[in-house]
Amino acid sequence: MSLGATAQPPSLSIVVPLYNEEENVRPLAEAIFKVLSPYPGSLELVLVDDGSHDRTAALALELVGSEPRIRLVRHERNRGLGAAIRTGLDAAEGDLILYTDADLPFDFGLIPQLLALATPDKIIIGCRANRGEGPRRWLLSKGYNLLCRGLLGLEVRDVNFACKLIPRCARQGMRLASEGSFIDAEILLECRRQGLGIVEFPLTYYPRTRGQSTLSRPKVIAGILSEMVRYPLRASDPAGRRRAPVTRSIWQRYGVAIGGGGLALLLTLLLQPLIGFNLYLFFIPAVIFIAWYGGWGPALTATTLAALSGAYFLPPPYSLSIADPNDILRLVLFVLMALSISTFANLQKWAEYAWRKAYGLVKELDHQRR
User: Fold this and answer.
1) Strands 96-100 and 12-18
2) Looking at the structure, do residues 328 and 214 belong to the same domain, yes or no?
């Protein structure tokens, strides 16, 4: 049953993170209440000031004084987009929670259409029907979406678009930890872990005209990639509940193997004037990552393809001839090296598994004593 079809209309919280958004605070509040004043359920706007250095907090406090449906939550220092969104989601009291940005990234007049699609078993997310940004941002966004699809299995068009309508029951089951801009992907992954469907809603994107975006800064990008790598490695929480493992298809695992091995060879060739033909400089990290990501099979595949490719692209001592017994021996040693690296790369997974088993046993014994 749709949430909109219940006898009592669902309450709605709109969460907006703010960092140096003094030019956008008033237009944001005006746009929201202009559209949603007729909303039949209770409504609140939760503004989260993430340690702004300008007049953002002061202007937000003025709005709180003039409109009882506006609440302000503050961070004493700037912690990052993810922390601000987590704070806002925790403070929100509505049955539905809409997270968006302060710079009015889409037509808020379409929010009622998003609400009409809401049900307790799915999350509604906006996706850009246009690309109203420069080539650099387009390239970064496209690359990030491909990474999320390949590494995390998130098959959505626009991971980071700031329009996500979340049922409160889903928020209560999320275990969010991101401090930075990986929060968007983390929200989707946590909804998927709980079995929620993801519905994409095309929206026309309006580029920022006031204030300054920080999403494409190198520090922010590095933070996103760091949190992306850490997400699958998180251990179970103190209550002993496990995250559902990220499932990867055979195409994903072997695609990463071929791509990673090929990238190692390509870097070797491109950087030849600087490093000579030091294949191991790139190849060993590539195989460690491939082994962690896909297991022994993809790691061995990448190793074998790299070794065979050496017969055509690399000079001695890296080139191989299938007719030469010495080269065959080198190939065998190459494969054994990959096995060793793969074993090392998977030690972390085995250690985590053993820890979970031991932790579960201790909890069970403790429960029996009580």
Assistant:
1) parallel
2) no
- What are the beta bridge partners of residue 163? 100
* Residue 274 token pair: 């600087």
Cα 194–Cα 149–Cα 280 angle in degrees, nearest 5: 125
Mean pLDDT lowest for which of 49-58, 230-239, 270-279, 330-339?
230-239
Does a structural domain hold residue 240? no
Whether residue 239 lies inside any domain: the answer is no
Query: For the segment 296-350, what is each residue's pLDDT rounded down to a tens digit?
Result: 677 777 777 766 665 555 555 555 555 666 666 666 666 666 666 556 555 555 5
Query: Taking the CA atoms of the chain, what radius of gyration do you get in angstroms?
Result: 25
Q: Are 106 and 147 in contact (CB under 8 A)?
A: no
Q: Six-digit token pair at 331?
A: 């190939």
- Confirm whether 241 is domain-assigned: no
Say what the pLDDT of residue 239 is.
Answer: 43
Q: Which residue range forms the structural domain that includes residue 102?
A: 3-233
pLDDT at 6 over 70: no
Place of tokens 């995390």: 152
Q: Quick one: 11 exposed, middle or buried, by C-beta within 10 A (0-12, 13-18, 19+)?
A: middle
Q: Say whether pLDDT at 7 is over 80.
A: no
**Environment class of residue 269 by beta-carbon count within 10 Å: exposed (0-12), middle (13-18) or buried (19+)?**
exposed
Indicate whether 227 and 268 sit together in one domain. Answer: no
Picking from 70-84, 326-340, 344-358, which range would have the lowest pLDDT averaged per residue? Answer: 344-358
Residue 100: its H or E element: strand 96-100
d(CA 11, CA 47): 17
33 and 134 in a single domain? The answer is yes
Other beta carbons within 10 angstroms of residue 27's beta carbon come to 15
Interacting residues of 354 by C-beta distance below 8 A, sequence separation 6+: none
Same domain, 23 and 135: yes
Domain of residue 171, CATH code = 3.90.550.10
**127: number of Cβ within 10 Å:** 16
Residues 171 and 317 in one domain: no
The rounded distance, in Å, linking the Cα atoms of 341 and 257 is 14
**Number of domains forming the structure of the chain:** 2
Q: Say yes or no: 194 and 305 in one domain.
A: no
Pair 254, 291: CB distance under 8 Å: no
Residue 178 in any domain: the answer is yes
